Amino acid sequence: MNKFIQKFSNAVKNNKSYLCVGLDTDYNLIPFKTQNIYKSVLKFNRNIIDATKDLVCCYKINSAFYEAYGIDGIKALQKTVEIIKDVPVILDAKRSDIGNSAKFYAKFGFEIINADAMTVIPYMGIDTIDVFRNYKEKFVFIVAISSNPGAKDFQEFPSKKNPIYLKIMKKCKSTDKYKNTGYVVGATYPEKIRYLREKGFKETFLIPGIGAQKGDAEKSIKYAFMRKGTGIFNISRSIIYQADKKNYFESVRQKAKQYQMMLSVE
Amino acid sequence: MNKFIQKFSNAVKNNKSYLCVGLDTDYNLIPFKTQNIYKSVLKFNRNIIDATKDLVCCYKINSAFYEAYGIDGIKALQKTVEIIKDVPVILDAKRSDIGNSAKFYAKFGFEIINADAMTVIPYMGIDTIDVFRNYKEKFVFIVAISSNPGAKDFQEFPSKKNPIYLKIMKKCKSTDKYKNTGYVVGATYPEKIRYLREKGFKETFLIPGIGAQKGDAEKSIKYAFMRKGTGIFNISRSIIYQADKKNYFESVRQKAKQYQMMLSVE
Asked: In this predicted model, what pLDDT tens digit does every residue of B56-97 receive, in sequence order?
């Protein structure tokens, strides 16, 4: 069995949760920091992980937040993945390139960072996606519908009835040799989650947007689990940043607990 | 005037060249290396730069090749950009994300690496692209038509007459507030370069594929410069990797010189 699926299934079973905490740690926004970026980010992440590890089905780490701090950031990213135990890690890197280059991005995510799954942008074609999917033990989430306001600019082209994201998903599904493909579908468009389940996509959806982006949580959860589908709900800012500086990580835990209960789907 | 355009125009004038050398340096493939990845990659790049800097209009550095070697790779990437003088650097990073995350990718490329231009994947929408374009002095190349075999899978959807890449280019053009947008158009599809020039796109095209990928150089060059258009032709593997180990960097220079003459457009 695929290692990501295995770790994920165990975490869901043990923690009764479809909550994914997004470790989108911005050095500028974290409390209790020193001048040492690497140490500050890592310590913050360690505390977040300690406060949430029995409440989540996985962690998602957005590579951008770490790259923006150069060497220190990348070191903190590597070390963060190292200290996460028993729970799978999705590297949200949204990479894409022609085959010869894509293999180096896959190496970065799956070998250097050692993530269990990666997000990939599909625009460049199936051959570019397969480079990532050829890591049979790893999992790949194809960005189908993103959660930003501009998502509709191109993803719904040429029409709502015949959008490119559907073409992409059909093609990715029919070429999913190792059954290690899921899709990113933003919670800011919950009706589309339903639409896709009704279209027969039973795959695992990685669903951002029910936190700071104010997607409709109730609908998204209901639709994601329709027809034996599975949803992984990522929340980052609304969990990892808290106003209560005195009991910061206790607040983080309480907030994560609220989401975990909401996402404790039978 | 945009700093990338300025540096680029100067380099074209001084070096009489539209050749871009791709520093896609793979530690595994380079000669004369030691166990020290950082030093080996940097030394190789320094030699390539010394051998070609008066023959090029810019350098393109594919981030993937450096990320795949972790901290050592990123350090070599930073330092390589630092040692390139008077010639602009395109960081081929093919990044994309929702606004809040994209700004960190822009910071990585434009501030940490200090590139003059970056490549961006458009699928997620104009708001995600604008985060990069808001660096007014920098330049952004939108991946419209890539050079890989699978490019047609989605880029030509829903039809050759009404492809999404055209929709993307039109929308990017009409929102190009700071006139700092160009497009990646693969030389493996030269007729499309002509088609786009005929459609009125006069912007600068970054054109990969006339080297190792065997795109049609003659046609691509002719079409790229049609109707006052400008083409930047990237060649990587066929220049930086040479069989002649004895006079390695002299061979690199000779090969680059051949391409520069081909790309010495009046």
From this structure: 999 999 999 999 999 999 999 999 999 998 999 999 999 999
Per DSSP, B211 falls in state S
Query: Of the candidates B67, B98, B107, which has its C-beta nearest A105's C-beta?
Result: B67
Instruction: Identify the pLDDT of residue A200.
Output: 97
pLDDT band at A1 (very low <50, low <70, confident <90, very high): confident
Say whether B62 and A101 touch across the interface (CB within 8 A).
yes
Nearest to A67 by CA among A78, A81, A53, A51: A78
State the CATH architecture for B3-262. Answer: Alpha-Beta Barrel (3.20)
pLDDT (mean) for A177-186: 97
- Complex-level ipTM: 0.97
Per-residue pLDDT for A228 more than 80?
A: yes
Name the minimum distance, in Å, from the CA of A51 to any CA of chain B. 24
Cβ pairs bridging A and B (under 8 Å): 177
Determine the residue of chain B that is closest to A99 in CA distance. Answer: B148
Q: Which amino acid is at A204?
A: T
pTM of the prediction? 0.98
How big is chain B, counted in residues? 266
Q: Label residue A22 left, alpha or beta by phi (over 0 means left) and psi (-120 to 50 means alpha).
A: beta
Report the Cα A39 to chain-centroid distance in Å.
24
B88 vs B78: CA distance, rounded Å: 14
Q: Which uninterrupted H or E stretch holds A139?
A: strand A139-145
The whole-angstrom separation of Cα B139 and Cα B60 is 13
- Fold of the domain built from segment(s) A18-262: TIM Barrel (3.20.20)
Measured CA to CA, the distance from residue A214 to residue A186 in angstroms comes to 11
What percent of chain B lies above the pLDDT cut of 70?
Answer: 100
Whole-number pLDDT of residue B34: 97
Closest CA to A196 of A164, A175, A224: A224
Residue of B nearest to A159 (CA): B158
Q: In chain B, what are the domain boundaries? A: 3-262
Residue B94 is among the residues annotated as catalytic for this protein? yes
